[in-house]
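As agreed, record copied across for absentees:
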Amino acid sequence: MSTWQGALTLLRSEGRRSWGGLLLTMVFSAYISVVMMPLFQNLLDHGGKGVYGWIGNFLYMTLLPNMAFILNRSVFHYWSRDPYSRRLAYWRTLPISWNAIVLSRMLQLCIVLTIVSVFFFTVQYALLNELRELMAPSEYIVYALVWYGYALTLGATYAFFEQTLGGKAYLAVCHGYLIFYLLIGVVLWRTDTDLLYRTIEASRAHEWAWPVVSLLLGAAATVLIGLLIRKQLAKRNFYH
């Protein structure tokens, strides 16, 4: 079985098994859009100088990369059962190469992030009248692409730790990310910088360099991290 045949076989298998989780992820993203409405309202009313701007930045930085991951029962058992390591060990007993396994995972990450992001940004734009008044659809697409590239870049780093670490270590890394995002949010607040509003301004000014650079970084990160995952998996012991 070739690399692409193996990757697509795994991708289809995971898709059939996870479609319910994908729907749940989309519902959760819609919920986040609703929760963020007051924060966006405050942001737009105060021209990026709102009191709660850092919370919006924190939520965006934290939640968008996680939209590349499907909410299912396995998510809640990383600590106790380490289901993903078990799945990797099982897949390796099949006539499927590490290259196919990694390619399947990175393709799934991109597909899930694309579906959920399109849904999330569409719901957000539909719910916020002020956002529609401030930004034309074409400008909003620029805005969404910037954050999509960010989510792809950070989501790829999550995938690296997911596939190369055990469940407990992976959860510890995820908690470390939360602390990292919180620190960035505090720094942005202390320096009176609002990433969301700055992105809105860049999008309204049609600064296409923002989404281009963001998407290129996301694509490069996905490819390079996929190669790193392949290298680490070849050395990982699943039976200790």
Q: What stands out?
A: The chain has a mean pLDDT of 88. The chain has one domain: 3-235. The chain is about 80% helix and 0% strand.
